[in-house]
Amino acid sequence: MGQLEKLYQLIEEENIKLEILDSLPNHIDGMYLKSESSYPIIVINKKLENDSMKFKIVLAEELGHHFTSVGDSRVMFNSYTRRLQLDKSEITALKWATEFLLPIDRLKEAFLKMHNRQIDGVTQELEVPHEFLLARLKFLSHKFDYIDLDDKKAILLTTLPNICTIEKLSE
C-alpha cells in the first residue's frame, strides 16, 4: 500500500471528512477543522491535485494536526504568546507528518540506495521535497548525533543543514 493510500485509510478510520475546495483563505494549501459539535474535516486546496507530492505532504501535515493538536488553532494570533502556540502546533503537526511519511527504516533504505551521493536521489526515492527531508532529519537531530545505515555507514546529523553520510570507524 502506498503512502497516499495509507493517509486515506487513516482518514477513513478516524472518520475525518476530506474536502477539496477551489480556494482557501490567505492562499493556504490545507486546513484542519474540528469542533465539538461536528466531525473533523481536512480541507485541501484544489490546485494541489496536480502536484501529487505536495498534496501528500499537505494531507499528512493536516492529519498531523488531527493527531497532535489541542484546541482551536484556526484563530488568528493577536499576541506573541498566541503566535508561539500556533507555531508550536504547526511544528508538532509537521513532526508527525515527517515521522509518518519518513520512518527511520525508510530513510536508511533510501540513503543506502543513494547514487553518486546526491541528495536529489534520496528525495526522489522518498518522493518528498528536499525541505521535508531536511525537516525530518532536524527532528531526528534533537535525539541523535547520527543514524546508523549499516555496519560501515551513518548519516551525520550534527552538520545540518548539510546532509552527509560518513564511514564509521572500525572497532
Automatic annotation (TrEMBL):
Specify the IrrE N-terminal-like domain's residue ranges. 12-138
Q: Which domain of life is it from?
A: Bacteria
Q: Which InterPro entries does this chain map to?
A: IrrE_HExxH
One of its Pfam families is Peptidase_M78
The name on file for this protein is IrrE N-terminal-like domain-containing protein
